[in-house]
Each structure stands twice: as structure tokens, then as C-alpha cells.
């Protein structure tokens, strides 16, 4: 596998970042993930725009221009011969003597881009079966709208899910409402046929896939409410699902071991998944 690191393409195993990189020491950096399907980026512009927003919020300059970044993204796909997979990008504030405030002098931010193939057949099989989620308290900071590499609470929640034999952990805020999954946005379809997903406040990442699915659902004439929902409401729902760049739309069939509806993937969830993937093939 080939990685892009600060201007050079090198084998992943033959690259290095300084030990005083602020990403390593303070999680002082942001990341972005694109899905690649049949060699093409999904929602390319949405992810680019969110990267720009995350960088602006933390006042980290991108060390290359956006046109050059585009070239790098396509080059990493080409060099790794990715047909179906993902591209991971990380920008940190750079390397400087360890001290909490921003470095006083100009520091070149660290830019790393990698890619890897994904088994789409396995993902499709998982979606066709549906996945289980567990619930965990949301222990994260109060700016989850910024896509930072500060992911320890997400890591611990996902590990708890794995240890419980579940696919994802839904994070629950202090008022008992689901914020989102550890690496996905959370949705339900109520008994009344209303699609519900949390409003884009600072407690969730503004998923690019979330936005695309919202647009598709509107086109389908579905009623949508952007609001918080509780675990109890989700357990009474007709359907539940998660969205993310790498899982697209994946039905949720159980929550904390209790079935959602009849415990099978919902038809609206599967239709939205199919529509999303069809739309991706058309761009
Ligand atoms: N929420 C969190 C915490 C995430 O980490 C992610 C993606 O990694 C998402 C939601 C889904 O966002 P997107 O659809 O842009 O991949």
C-alpha cells in the first residue's frame, strides 16, 4: 500500500511522522473519509466541504490548495489500484516542541492520505442481514460537529459493541436521547412512517451520507423530522438504520439485544440504501 505523506508517495510501512507531531500528542488534527466505488468518489464535494469546515474551526491551514488536494486523492486511489474502498485523509497542526498552545512560529501542518480496498460483497451481506447495536453513554466533548482525530470515546464504545457481539454502539446523551453511533449517524422510521434523525447540532458529526439520504428520502416523499429520539422510541420504531460513508445505509435489527420491529431489515431502509448506491453510480 502506498501513502501520501507531506508531499511524497511512499509505501505505508516506510513512512514516518515526527514524534512531536501534535496529532500524536494532543489529537490536534482533523480527518476525512471518502468512499470509493467503481473507482469513483462518493459525495466528493460534501466531504471536501466538511474538511474545510473542520480545519477552519480549529484554525489549521491545509498545506496544499484544494485543487492539489484533489490530485492527491485521485493519485492515491490510482497508485493503490482501488476499485471499491475508502480514502483516509488526516491533517494535524504539525510538529513542534510539546506545549499546549498553538506553536508560536509558522509550522507546516502534517498531511497524510491513505487508501484501502473494502469488500463490498461483505458489506452488502451485512446490510441484507441487518446489524445489532448496543447503547452506551456519550462521553465525548461538546464539539462533535468537528471531525477531529480525538476519537477515544468512540473507540471505547465501538470496542464495547464488538465485545457484546454487536456492530455499532449508539451513544446516549444525559437526557436519554441518542446522539449518533460511534462512527455512524442514527435513524429510525416511526410507526407513523416518519423518518427521524437528530438535528445537526454540536452533539453529532454532520454526516455527509446523512445529508444525501435526507435528500433522497425527501425525493421519495417521506416525511422527515430532524430531532432527537430516545432508545425507547427506537425500540418502538418500525425500522432503524445507520448511515456513513463506508456503510452507506445499514439496517439496525436489534438494540441492546431487543429486536426492532420483527427483527429483520426494514424495506424503507433497504430502499434508501439501493437508491443511494444507484445515485452514486450515476455521478
Ligand atoms: N458520526 C460519526 C461520529 C462518524 O465518525 C461518522 C463517520 O465516520 C459519521 C457520523 C458518518 O458521517 P459520514 O456519513 O460523513 O461518513
TrEMBL record:
It catalyses: L-isoleucine + 2-oxoglutarate = (S)-3-methyl-2-oxopentanoate + L-glutamate; L-valine + 2-oxoglutarate = 3-methyl-2-oxobutanoate + L-glutamate; L-leucine + 2-oxoglutarate = 4-methyl-2-oxopentanoate + L-glutamate. Pathway: Amino-acid biosynthesis; L-valine biosynthesis; L-valine from pyruvate: step 4/4; Amino-acid biosynthesis; L-leucine biosynthesis; L-leucine from 3-methyl-2-oxobutanoate: step 4/4; Amino-acid biosynthesis; L-isoleucine biosynthesis; L-isoleucine from 2-oxobutanoate: step 4/4. It comes from the Bacteria. GO terms for molecular function: L-isoleucine-2-oxoglutarate transaminase activity; L-leucine-2-oxoglutarate transaminase activity; L-valine-2-oxoglutarate transaminase activity. GO terms for biological process: amino acid biosynthetic process; branched-chain amino acid biosynthetic process. SUPFAM superfamilies: D-aminoacid aminotransferase-like PLP-dependent enzymes. The keyword Amino-acid biosynthesis applies. InterPro entries: Aminotrans_IV (IPR001544), Aminotransferase-like (IPR036038), BCAT-like_C (IPR043132), BCAT-like_N (IPR043131), Class-IV_PLP-Dep_Aminotrnsfr (IPR050571). Pfam families: Aminotran_4. Keywords: Amino-acid biosynthesis, Aminotransferase, Branched-chain amino acid biosynthesis, Pyridoxal phosphate, Transferase. Its cofactor is pyridoxal 5'-phosphate. CDD domains: D-AAT_like. Its EC number is 2.6.1.42. Belongs to the class-IV pyridoxal-phosphate-dependent aminotransferase family. Acts on leucine, isoleucine and valine. This is Probable branched-chain-amino-acid aminotransferase. It comes from Marinicauda algicola.
Amino acid at each position: 500500500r502506498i501513502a501520501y505523506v507531506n508531499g511524497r508517495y511512499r509505501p505505508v510501512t516506510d513512512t514516518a511522522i515526527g514524534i512531536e507531531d501534535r496529532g500524536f500528542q494532543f489529537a490536534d488534527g482533523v480527518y476525512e473519509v471518502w468512499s470509493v466505488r467503481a473507482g469513483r468518489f462518493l459525495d466528493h464535494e460534501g466531504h471536501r466541504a466538511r474538511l474545510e469546515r473542520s480545519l477552519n474551526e480549529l484554525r489549521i491551514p491545509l498545506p496544499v490548495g484544494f485543487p492539489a488536494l484533489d490530485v492527491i486523492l485521485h493519485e492515491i486511489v490510482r497508485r493503490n489500484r482501488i476499485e471499491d474502498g475508502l480514502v483516509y485523509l488526516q491533517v494535524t497542526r504539525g510538529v513542534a516542541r510539546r506545549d499546549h498552545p498553538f506553536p508560536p512560529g509558522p509550522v507546516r501542518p502534517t498531511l497524510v492520505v491513505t487508501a484501502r480496498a473494502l469488500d463490498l460483497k461483505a458489506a452488502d451481506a451485512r446490510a441484507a442481514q441487518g446489524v445489532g447495536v448496543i447503547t452506551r453513554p456519550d462521553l465525548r466533548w461538546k464539539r462533535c460537529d468537528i471531525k477531529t482525530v480525538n476519537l477515544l470515546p468512540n473507540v471505547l464504545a465501538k470496542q464495547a459493541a464488538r465485545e457484546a457481539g454487536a456492530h455499532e454502539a449508539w451513544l446516549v446523551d444525559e437526557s436519554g436521547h441518542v446522539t449518533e453511533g460511534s462512527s455512524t449517524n442514527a435513524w429510525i422510521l416511526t410507526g407513523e412512517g416518519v423518518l427521524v434523525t437528530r438535528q445537526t447540532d454540536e452533539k453529532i458529526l454532520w454526516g455527509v451520507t446523512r445529508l444525501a439520504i435526507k435528500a433522497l428520502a425527501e425525493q421519495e416523499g417521506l416525511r422527515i423530522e430532524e430531532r432527537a429520539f430516545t432508545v425507547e422510541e427506537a425500540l418502538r420504531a418500525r425500522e432503524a438504520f445507520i448511515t456513513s460513508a463506508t456503510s452507506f445505509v445499514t439496517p439496525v435489527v436489534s438494540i441492546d439485544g431487543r429486536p426492532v420491529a420483527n427483527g429483520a431489515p426494514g424495506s424503507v431502509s433497504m430502499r434508501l440504501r439501493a437508491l443511494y448506491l444507484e445515485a452514486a453510480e450515476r455521478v
